[in-house]
């Protein structure tokens, strides 16, 4: 695992953004970062979505932000519960905003903004429940 892809401050900012986004929702957000994408970016993201057991949330409302830094590729994918509720262009809108930040060299800031956008939509469609538990870790996972 290559955790050196981000500084400690960048990791903390991203993990804090996940925690803040999840405060108003029962939805779950994860970030996976690796150097290179093994195959097509959406296929890799879907594979990791499964590997990270993101489909195991009760309401099927997990969102994965996948980034292959050296390959300059990324994907944002949601589980079927969230995909059934958000507008069809929702993931594209997040990707466009993130891509603007990424092109300017602001990877962590782009992630933080995208996570905030996803958290807002999750909050609208899957509001926080009194008995809600954090079903998935907020820690960034890293690949090779």
Question: What attributes does this structure have?
Answer:
alpha/beta, 144 residues, 4-stranded mixed sheet
Structure description:
This protein has 5 helices and 4 strands, in the order H-E-H-E-E-H-H-H-E. The chain is globular, with a radius of gyration of 14 Å. The chain has one domain (3-127): Diaminopimelate Epimerase, Chain A, domain 1 (Roll), CATH 3.10.310.50. The chain is 44% helix and 15% strand. It starts with 7 loop residues before the first helix and ends with a strand. The protein has helices at 8-22, 41-51, 80-83, 90-103, 107-125; strands at 28-34, 62-68, 73-78, 141-142. The protein is of the alpha/beta class.
Judging by the overall fold, what is the CATH architecture? Answer: Roll
Number of strands: 4
Specify the CATH class: Alpha Beta
- Structural class of the secondary structure composition? alpha/beta
Order of helices and strands: HEHEEHHHE
Cα distance, first to last residue? 5 Å
Please give the count of helices.
5
Report low-confidence residues grouped into runs of 5 or more: none
Beta content = 15-25%
* Basic shape: globular
- Structurally, the number of domains stands at 1
The level of helicity is 40-55%
How does the major sheet shape up?
4 strands, mixed
Instruction: Please tell me how large the radius of gyration is.
Output: 14 Å
What is the average of the pLDDT values?
88
CATH fold name: Diaminopimelate Epimerase, Chain A, domain 1
The spatial strand order of the largest sheet comes to 3-2-1-4
């Amino acid at each position: 695992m290559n955790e050196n892809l981000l500084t400690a401050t960048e990791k903390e900012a991203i993990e804090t953004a996940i925690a803040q986004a999840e405060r108003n929702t029962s939805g779950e957000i994860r970030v996976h970062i690796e150097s290179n994408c093994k195959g097509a970016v959406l296929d890799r993201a879907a594979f990791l979505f499964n590997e990270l057991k993101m489909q195991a949330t009760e309401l099927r409302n997990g969102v994965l932000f996948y980034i292959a830094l050296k390959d300059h590729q990324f994907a944002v994918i949601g589980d079927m519960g969230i995909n059934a509720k958000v507008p069809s262009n929702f993931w594209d809108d997040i990707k466009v905003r993130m891509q603007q930040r990424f092109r300017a060299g602001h990877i962590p800031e782009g992630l933080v903004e995208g996570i905030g956008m996803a958290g807002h939509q999750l909050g609208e469609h899957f509001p926080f429940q009194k008995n809600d538990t954090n079903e998935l870790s907020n820690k960034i996972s890293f690949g090779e």
